[in-house]
Design a protein that fits this description.
By secondary structure, the protein is mainly alpha-helical. Helix content is 72%, strand content 0%.
């Protein structure tokens, strides 16, 4: 317990200390009452200016991750804590010890729903990867004997079709591995195919509530209904097809070296795919008909996967024991090697391999942007963009901004501003924020990951050489959306 003398020193000294740090603030007489007050405009105070500077500094560190090798979640998490600390001090100086805490809880609830949703989805994707679903798909493509141009179109089409369910990062890495296996010794083919995959994966994620974190945020906010996202299918397809057609003429002709790679899906792999479909159905029906948060259906589906994982693990342990007995009595050498290398399925291994840096980065971004909104910056930005420029121009600029800045903070800022827009405009900003990152190789997680996968072959400037074609697709998709929606 705190000694009585120390408590009295704190009671007398803390207000004086805070007053010294912020001499312009008006303190209530004696100890603050703690009653909630009207929201404060802190944009012109040192609290607001310092918070804005911290966020800019943190995001510069995020953008420098490739050079500093500092994980992107670290600076924004620290910045979030300091920003909310400054907000808490500012409100306490005005005698309000409740409003800042309530604002924090509001932002935490939004983050918790999205984080648990993403954790369930990532666990399913990692489990499908562990069961060799994606390796089997890659093996089929590599061994099918398609021409280089056919592989260019097939990997783009599959990226467009898979990313609405799986995240664009996983989709891009799987298709990128196919291209690397097929196009060994063909750097031009690899570079063009990688650009095509990035554009296709980002475009495919834009018309599905599950395809990208930004679309998920819009859906969970209730601004666009599940079925309404599919109005973006044609604009998204145009966004991919326009640059793909432009690049296809530059893809070299010929056939790759034949391969006999075959990968069998592990036991239970297709059951996991079926459970994932059931999980998505639970999330959608629960949200549409029972008006429950989608995260409830996703976590229920994760529970089903864990229950199935229990039986899958028991079955593998039993078969492993049979193999060991067979090896002990002099079975073939290959059976012994299977015994030594076989590991029983563990659902928590899939959960460990979730993209925790991304989830923690998401926490930092939500809390930082939420803090800047509480300070009052987003209200002014919303007026400048959506009132002065108009929603269409503003939403197009959001997409261009997402090519430089990650689309997560951009979209969360728009959602926090909550401008008065109809469904067509919310779909437009969903489209632009989703596909705008394709303009640059560093504009999306898919592009950054593929630059690491094909270092020196798929590069920033190599992508930039075809940015004009990607920009044509960006403009065409917006025009098509405004025309048909």
């Amino acid at each position: 317990m705190t000694p009585p003398r120390f408590r009295s020193v704190l009671a007398l000294g803390l207000p004086s200390l805070i007053g010294a740090l912020a001499p312009g603030a008006a303190l209530a007489s004696g100890i603050p009452s703690g009653e909630p007050i009207a929201p404060l405009d802190l944009t012109d105070t040192w609290f607001g200016i310092t918070s804005l500077g911290l966020f800019v500094l943190a995001y510069l560190l995020v953008m420098s991750e490739e050079f500093l090798h500092l994980r992107k979640s670290k600076p924004v998490m620290v910045a979030a804590g300091i920003i909310w600390g400054l907000i808490g001090v500012a409100y306490a100086l005005h005698g309000d010890t409740h409003s800042a805490g309530e604002a924090v809880r509001h932002n935490l609830l939004e983050y918790a729903e999205l984080m648990l949703f993403l954790l369930a989805a990532m666990t399913y994707i990692n489990t499908m990867e562990e069961r060799d679903i994606f390796r089997a798909l890659r093996g089929w493509l590599v061994s099918s004997g398609f021409s280089l141009r056919a592989v260019f179109w097939l990997t783009g089409l599959l990226a467009f079709c898979i990313s609405p369910v799986a995240d664009n990062l996983t989709t891009a890495l799987v298709m990128g591995a196919v291209v690397m296996a097929v196009g060994a010794g063909q750097p031009r083919f690899v570079a063009l195919s990688y650009i095509n995959i990035v554009v296709a994966a980002n475009a495919g994620g834009a018309f599905s509530p599950f395809g990208d974190i930004t679309t998920l945020m819009v859906w969970q906010k209730g601004l666009v209904h599940f079925q309404e996202f599919f109005r973006l299918l044609i604009p998204s397809a145009v966004n991919w097809l326009v640059p793909a057609v432009c690049m296809a003429f530059a893809v070299p002709r010929g056939n790759p070296h034949a391969s006999t790679e075959r990968v069998e899906v592990k036991h239970g792999g297709f059951v996991v795919v079926g459970l994932f479909a059931i999980t998505i159905t639970l999330a959608v029906t629960g949200h549409n008909f029972l008006h429950l948060p989608p995260v409830l259906g996703m976590m229920t589906g994760l529970g089903l996967l864990k229950v199935y994982g229990y039986f899958l693990r028991r079955d593998e342990l039993r078969r492993d024991e049979l193999r060991r007995e067979f090896a002990d009595i002099g079975g073939p050498e290959e059976e012994r090697s299977v015994v030594d290398g076989d590991r029983a399925f563990d659902i928590f291994s899939s959960m460990k391999r979730a993209e925790w840096d991304t989830l923690m980065f998401f926490y930092g971004v939500v809390m930082c942007v939420g803090g800047l909104g509480t300070i009052g910056y987003l209200a002014g930005l919303s007026h400048a963009m959506y009132t002065d420029l108009g929603p269409t121009t503003a939403n197009i600029l959001v997409g261009l901004l997402s090519a430089v800045v990650d689309n997560i903070p951009v979209m969360f800022a728009v959602l926090t501003m909550n401008p008065d827009m109809d469904v067509s405009q919310w779909l437009l900003v969903t489209l632009t924020a989703g596909v705008g990152g394709s303009l640059l190789s560093v504009g999306s997680a898919a592009g950054v990951a593929l630059m690491g996968q094909a270092r020196g072959v798929y590069t920033f400037f190599g992508h930039l050489r075809w940015s004009w074609a990607v920009a044509l697709g960006y403009a065409a998709s917006i025009w098509v959306h405004l025309l048909i929606n």
